[in-house]
Amino acid sequence: METTFYFRNEVLVKRPYLTAALCEAVVRLPYRTEVQSDNRIRHWAFSTELGKWLRVVTLADGNTLHNAFPDRRFIP
């Protein structure tokens, strides 16, 4: 998958427990998806590796990773 400059240089640096492969897995098999007002797409899935729900945000193409973080407020 493609990644943005922000994802490579901010997200992965600030959250060393995340990997691009882990984020790709969320995008490939999400529990839920939602389109934001700016057309970016939110993908949620539970990570057994981390024991948490992850939110991964892609650009409008649905293929370029832009942001990712554990989502403490997500309710399945």
Description:
The protein is an alpha+beta fold and 76 residues long. The chain has one domain. The chain is 25% helix and 36% strand. The chain contains two helices and five strands, in the order βααββββ. It has helices at 5-14, 20-28, and strands at 2-3, 32-35, 41-47, 52-58, 64-70. A five-stranded mixed sheet has the order 1-5-4-3-2. The longest helix is centred in the first third of the chain and has 10 residues, at 5-14. The N and C termini lie far apart (26 Å).
By DSSP (H or I, 4+ residues per run), the number of helices equals: 2
Total strands: 5
- Lateral arrangement of strands in the main beta sheet: 1-5-4-3-2
Mean pLDDT metric: 97
Relative helix content? 25-40%
Q: What structural class is derived from the secondary structure elements?
A: alpha+beta
Number of separate structural domains: 1
Task: Please outline what is shown here.
The protein has 76 residues and is of the alpha+beta class. The protein has helices at residues 5-14, 20-28; strands at 2-3, 32-35, 41-47, 52-58, 64-70.
Show the helix and strand layout.
Blueprint: E1 2-3, H1 5-14, H2 20-28, E2 32-35, E3 41-47, E4 52-58, E5 64-70
Parallel strand pairs: 1-5
Antiparallel strand pairs: 2-3, 3-4, 4-5
